Amino acid sequence: MLFVAAMSTSLPALGTSDGPGTSETGGAAPGAFQAAATPPARNGSDWLRHDFQNALAHGQLGVAYQPRVCLDTRRIVGAEALARWPHRRHGMVPPAQFIPVAEQTGMVVPLGGWMLQAACSEAARWPANLTVSVNASACQLAKGVLLGQVRSALDLSGLAPERLEIELTESMLVDATIETLLILSEIRDLGVGLALDDFGTGYAGLATVRRLPLTTLKLDRSFVRGVLRYREDTAIAQAVITFGATLGLAIVAEGVEDEAQCRFLASLGCQEGQAFFFGRPASAERFREMSRNVVDPGAEGQPRC
What we know:
TIM Barrel, about 300 residues, 8-stranded mixed beta barrel
């Protein structure tokens, strides 16, 4: 059984995907986005809590969209929605700073609901074969609000459920209760996809994955990075891809760095990739421009990738 040493996976939820913040963001007033800056300390994290609460309450957050592509065709097949906070005084506040504050204060629950609504509303404007992925937090699951937030976002946006994917971390699921499994099953029954993010960095073994109603495994960048250099990473990548195929799961490689890795992963059966190599997180407007050239194969019944 594949079982890899744990690493912290709580910070990326709702915030980061493939590296640090980017100047290409979306969802806020023009001119509000600036180069990333580290805000000065002031009374510990008090200013972060206060200002983030105000930003969330007054619609001052943004969303960036990082493309996911088919490794065989290099066609965009969807995007992951990433929270961004353009602070009027401090510039772009890194997600690694504001996401922990949101988790500690419980604001991650309304943040998660807002992200779902914003991402679904935006994705409804894309070509009909593109999907959007949104990170969920452990708090949304624990409080039992995730299912309702998903339903609300779909109802208000009109987005087809099959075009939404919820990303979960291993730490959220390794000790999943019956209640959690029932919630996830209800989300799947809606037609919404469920992805396990950063697979291989936490405590989730193959037995855990097998009992979850997942549709996608995202292979962590730490294995992708060494896939052509280290025999162990190659073996792990191949095992995950084979395991995913056996369960009928889509496999997404995170952090692909070059053409050689891309071709090798595709040869192993990995379907999709998400990395700076394919495209950095972009504003809603920029991603819309990128997606205009995407041919919609859905009407002809062709596969997504």
